[in-house]
Write a structure and sequence with these properties.
It is a single chain. By secondary structure, the protein is an alpha/beta fold. The protein contains 5 helices and 21 strands. Strand 7 and strand 8 form a beta hairpin. The chain is elongated, with a radius of gyration of 24 Å.
Length: 278
């Protein structure tokens, strides 16, 4: 890369966020090879032998897919790419590699700007491009001291908020007790004699008596009928789980009915449930 041909303020045009990971784990990501001044020399997609960072032979810099541009510069590049007949007009495959090749992209280390709570030892980030990663990123929030702390008042997370009634827990009998342990239960949920463990329940979930739910990410307005047992699952919005359904105990049976990952996480959607009765 010939940085001596670039204007002195070129670094302001575009920045690409990067996360340091062990080289042994970096082959699963897009890797930025940088020089001592953080200019990106090349971008390698899932290389077998990831390049090391300057001064850190055991680390590689993973692309996080987060970009910051000078708006005027970005518009110019979009126009240039639109007029290029050899381009596929894809942001990640065409525009970013062009900027890297022509020496106009600079890496920004996520660890330099990530806000941490007092308990955090490292910058928290997950790539949620797979079902397993999506499940894990949500389950992470149930930890006693989560790496991403939703309750950290010094760094509030502002997001969509709904006006809902509080979560409700009812029944207190042996085997039929509305309870949730190591879990996040959103507003509008009704835990009616069901047992919830290490799970995240979105708005309006209703778990009926004798249901047992563990290691579950349940999207809004799901209804889990009486006696259902659900473990290691992601349940899509609005799904109606039938009475007595068991998921997470028989891997072969789960794979026949639902989408099951190699790590044992099952995705459950309403069409999948509907096919059970065919």
């Amino acid at each position: 890369m010939q940085t001596n041909q670039l204007p002195s303020q070129t670094w302001r045009h575009s920045r690409r966020w990067g996360l340091e990971v062990p080289r042994s784990e970096a082959s699963s990501f897009g890797i930025m090879q940088i020089d001592d001044t953080d200019f990106i020399e090349s971008f390698l997609e899932k290389p077998v032998d990831p390049p090391a960072m300057p001064g850190k032979p055991d680390k590689s810099l993973v692309s996080m897919g987060i970009y910051v541009f000078n708006s005027k510069f970005l518009f110019e590049e979009l126009r240039r790419d639109a007029e290029d007949p050899n381009s596929g007009h894809d942001f990640g495959k065409d525009i970013i590699p062009y900027l890297v090749k022509h020496g106009r992209a600079v890496a920004h280390h996520f660890s330099r700007s990530c806000v941490r709570s007092h308990n955090d030892e490292r910058s928290y980030w997950r790539d949620v491009g797979t079902l397993d990663a999506y499940w894990a990123s949500n389950i992470d929030l149930t930890d006693i001291l989560p790496e991403l702390d939703l309750y950290d008042r010094s760094w509030p997370i502002w997001t969509h908020a709904e006006i809902t009634p509080p979560a409700k827990f009812v029944h207190d009998q042996d085997g039929r007790r509305g309870e949730a342990v190591t879990s996040l239960v959103s507003g509008g949920c009704i835990i009616s004699g069901a047992e919830i463990r290490r799970s995240l329940l979105f708005t309006g979930v209703h778990a009926h008596s004798f249901a047992k739910i563990e290691n579950a990410v349940i999207l809004p307005y799901v209804e889990a009928a009486r006696g259902s047992r659900l473990k290691n699952v992601v349940i899509d919005r609005g799904v109606r789980i039938p009475e007595g359904l068991v998921v997470g105990e028989d891997p072969e049976r789960d794979a026949e009915r639902f989408r099951r990952t190699e790590q044992g996480i099952c995705l459950i959607t309403q069409p999948m449930i509907d096919r059970l009765s065919e």
